[in-house]
Fold this sequence. Notes:
The chain is of the alpha+beta class. It contains 6 helices and 12 strands. The radius of gyration is 18 Å and the shape is globular.
Amino acid sequence: MKILICIDDTDNLDSIGTGQLLEDMCAEMERTGLAKGGFVTRHQLLIHEDIEYTSHNSSMCCEAETGDLQKTAAFAKEYLESHAAEGSDPGICILRLTDGADYGKLCEFGRLAQTVVLRKEDAYAAAAMYPDVLSLTEHGGTGDGVIGALAGVGLRLTGSDGRVKGKIRPETEGERLTVEEFCEKYPVDQVLTEDGDRLPDETELVFTEPAKAVMIGGTVTLVAVRDNGRWIPRPHKGNKK
Length: 241
């Protein structure tokens, strides 16, 4: 079965960061045979003086496949408790994905978390609408991480939110590839312009600087921009979390 795992509020200024923690967790689950995790997405939440966060107030989410949801969930929660940074307020959300399910309320919560100051009570109320398929738990400190953990799941479910963790780096400076060749070589499924138009497979890209993939329409997407008459992957300067 497929699940979504999202964690938030696990780090401090000296720790490895929430995204790395989730990647490490998935790697350990795969090593033990519990689950196989996919790529991690970063979901930006509201920046506000009433919200405590370490650096950028973002949550981290990934999809995983498991044959034993109960054991996988128990492992993930124990791993979070053991590896979350001192002084953090970690929360974790685990959702079992079901074909044809209506996740509208979760998506709505995710969008709200980008514009409104929410409380733990709001997160638990939203989670209660999915009692048979969703687990939302706090694992230290104030536990406020449950807000971002639930929001991250909702935003991942929209299919059009979040940056894929990790930069895509050119193999050689100024590497020239068609769109089709780029998608075969790098972890990207489509290339769009900033206006949302899909670039034809034969379009040449000049890969000059590290770039980031984003989620658009449920697809891992590279955004390309015009630069001196040529198409280049949009450069991106990342951040810690």
